[in-house]
């Protein structure tokens, strides 16, 4: 009987430790970071429009942060857009098939269209005028299973 009580106590402690660990991991992961890749793109564009470099980098892979930190790359420190309205975010399966023949499930490509009105600062630092813009965004899952922007372009 004593053996059974010790075994039962051990099992209860083990389950409590597992439960607490699971709770803490979910708390860390659920810290307001967007779950869907489309939400990551929208959050990045919002931060970009405000010129919030720290917030922008939160949504980028380490590789992209290194590329963006090159001396010749624009690093906005002021708001770029007076207004920014996302018109569409559509997943591009065909482009992904062309780019990634291995069938990788941790990569997604989206065509993003938005309309923006640039601030005076934005007009000085951007070569594109105000109006409709579109880019392809490549997102990958990081080690924490969070979607991060790894690249973008026309």
Structure description:
By secondary structure, the chain is α+β, with helices and mostly antiparallel strands. It has two domains: 1-31; 34-153, Nuclear Transport Factor 2, Chain: A, CATH 3.10.450. It has six helices and four strands. It has helices spanning 2-29, 37-50, 53-58, 62-68, 93-99, 120-125, and strands spanning 81-91, 107-118, 131-141, 147-153. A four-stranded antiparallel β-sheet has the order 1-2-3-4, sandwiched between helices. β3 (131-141) and β4 (147-153) form a beta hairpin. It is elongated.
Question: What's the helix and strand layout?
Answer:
Elements (H helix, E strand, L loop, with lengths): L1 H28 L7 H14 L2 H6 L3 H7 L12 E11 L1 H7 L7 E12 L1 H6 L5 E11 L5 E7 L1
Antiparallel strand pairs: 1-2, 2-3, 3-4
Q: Quick gist of this model?
A:
This protein is of the alpha+beta class and 154 residues long. The chain contains 6 helices and 4 strands.
Give the tally of structural domains: 2
Secondary-structure element pattern, one letter each: HHHHEHEHEE
Spans with pLDDT under 50 lasting ≥5 residues? none
Helix content: 40-55%
β-strand percent reads: 25-35%
The CATH C-level name of the largest domain is Alpha Beta
Give the overall shape.
elongated
CATH architecture of the largest domain: Roll
């Amino acid at each position: 009987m004593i053996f059974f009580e010790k075994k039962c106590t051990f099992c209860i402690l083990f389950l409590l430790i597992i439960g607490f660990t699971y709770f803490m991991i979910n708390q860390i992961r659920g810290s307001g970071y967007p779950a869907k890749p489309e939400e990551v793109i929208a959050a990045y564009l919002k931060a970009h429009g405000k010129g919030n470099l720290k917030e922008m980098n939160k949504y980028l892979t380490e590789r992209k942060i290194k590329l963006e930190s090159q001396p010749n790359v624009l690093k906005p420190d002021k708001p770029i857009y007076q207004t920014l309205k996302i018109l569409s975010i559509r997943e591009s399966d065909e482009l992904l098939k062309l780019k990634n023949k291995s069938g990788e499930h941790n990569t997604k490509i989206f065509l993003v269209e938005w309309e923006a009105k640039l601030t005076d600062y934005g007009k000085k630092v951007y070569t594109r005028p105000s109006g409709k813009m579109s880019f392809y965004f490549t997102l990958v899952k990081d080690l924490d299973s969070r979607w991060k922007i790894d690249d973008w372009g026309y």
